[in-house]
Automatic annotation (TrEMBL):
<feature type="domain" description="C2">
    <location>
        <begin position="11"/>
        <end position="134"/>
    </location>
</feature>
<dbReference type="GO" id="GO:0071277">
    <property type="term" value="P:cellular response to calcium ion"/>
</dbReference>
<dbReference type="GO" id="GO:0046872">
    <property type="term" value="F:metal ion binding"/>
</dbReference>
<dbReference type="InterPro" id="IPR002035">
    <property type="entry name" value="VWF_A"/>
</dbReference>
<dbReference type="InterPro" id="IPR000008">
    <property type="entry name" value="C2_dom"/>
</dbReference>
<keyword id="KW-0677">Repeat</keyword>
<dbReference type="InterPro" id="IPR036465">
    <property type="entry name" value="vWFA_dom_sf"/>
</dbReference>
<dbReference type="InterPro" id="IPR045052">
    <property type="entry name" value="Copine"/>
</dbReference>
<dbReference type="InterPro" id="IPR035892">
    <property type="entry name" value="C2_domain_sf"/>
</dbReference>
<dbReference type="GO" id="GO:0005544">
    <property type="term" value="F:calcium-dependent phospholipid binding"/>
</dbReference>
<dbReference type="Pfam" id="PF00168">
    <property type="entry name" value="C2"/>
</dbReference>
<dbReference type="InterPro" id="IPR010734">
    <property type="entry name" value="Copine_C"/>
</dbReference>
<keyword id="KW-0479">Metal-binding</keyword>
<dbReference type="InterPro" id="IPR037768">
    <property type="entry name" value="C2B_Copine"/>
</dbReference>
<keyword id="KW-0106">Calcium</keyword>
<dbReference type="GO" id="GO:0005886">
    <property type="term" value="C:plasma membrane"/>
</dbReference>
<comment type="similarity">
    <text>Belongs to the copine family.</text>
</comment>
Amino acid sequence: MQRVKGIPGKKCGAIILTAEELSNCRDIATMQLCANKLDKKDFFGKSDPFLVFYRSNEDGTFTICHKTEVVKNTLNPVWQPFTIPVRALCNGDYDRTVKVDVYDWDRDGSHDFIGEFTTSYRELSRGQSQFNVYEVLNPKKKGKKKKYINSGTVSVVLSLSSCQLCHNFDLAKLRLANGNPSQPTSLHYMNPYQMNTYAMALKAVGEIIQDYDSDKLFPAYGFGAKLPPDGKISHAFPLNSDTENPNCVGIEGVLEAYFQSLRTVQLYGPTNFAPVINQVARSAADVTDGSQYFVLLMITDGVISDMVQTKEAVVNAASLPMSVIIVGVGPAEFDAMEELDGDEVRVSFRGRIAERDIVQFVPFRDYIDRSGNQVLSMARLAKDVLAEIPDQLLSYMKSRGIEPRPALETTPTPARYMRI
């Protein structure tokens, strides 16, 4: 204990320092929790719940080690996955008590206490099960109400340790790299000052593609998310939330729908490519007379959970008026994406070889200009990513014997572009 020195003759209090030897545990925990039937705390709404995790210390006190984000106006929240060093959570002692408080967020900072429960990292690491459901208890309410049972329950949805991440890389990678868009660690981070890499790639390529579309209407889909209001998992959902009309007006409309979607859906694995490829292929199969040609732009961190199904989808799509552009973002290895790009070896599925090479892949990181000239970087990306489209279009037309339409004998007008 060190006494604070100040004005002579007056007590200025004391600062007490406590210390504990840190373990050499290097494990990283990834967890996701949800709650059910929490107490209603807001007069005009439900509750805005969040969790606070506390590490127990050797002297019996507790120290805050993590807070989740606030989920607005719900009694059944699902919080985003988060990562935390096991050393910070329990100093490497898997059986040490971990206390969790549940609060209702208030704008003025006077958050309302809903209840609490205790557990341990060993229990949390067991993941989703009937034994990882905790009653949220409020001691004051329990003392006042004889019929009080609890203030809701909290359940573990996901729990991975660092060693488990090695075996569940596809699922964990999606959540860690593309997790909460409000966190700077996410590739989807909604930075108020600049676009994230997904938006940059979409804008660079999309602004070139849109010049070849007469109506500037683009159906835009996301893959790998839980959708409101029931948390249904989808691998091909319209970014604008309109299942009847997924079209967005121009690339600016696509960007607007993308950012709005980040605020409403919960990013979720696994990462399946085949559903969205098949979605576009169904549209292409309806127009095989050469009047339209479809280009699917996929922006991804490289993780893929359905490689076999995706190869089948690409082989099937190769006989349709369709091309697939894949832009890889983030620091991951893109071996799977390189395999789908049939420049060297044509994609095959169960002995069937793709009729044409329709996939073009580029890693976004190769186009970040070292001088900081973002405009130049985007121009280089767009140029290379679209380089194969003309030959792919011509290869389809020639294979089907489709001749160019004769020019109309009227007053010369700007050339009409085929819809892409």
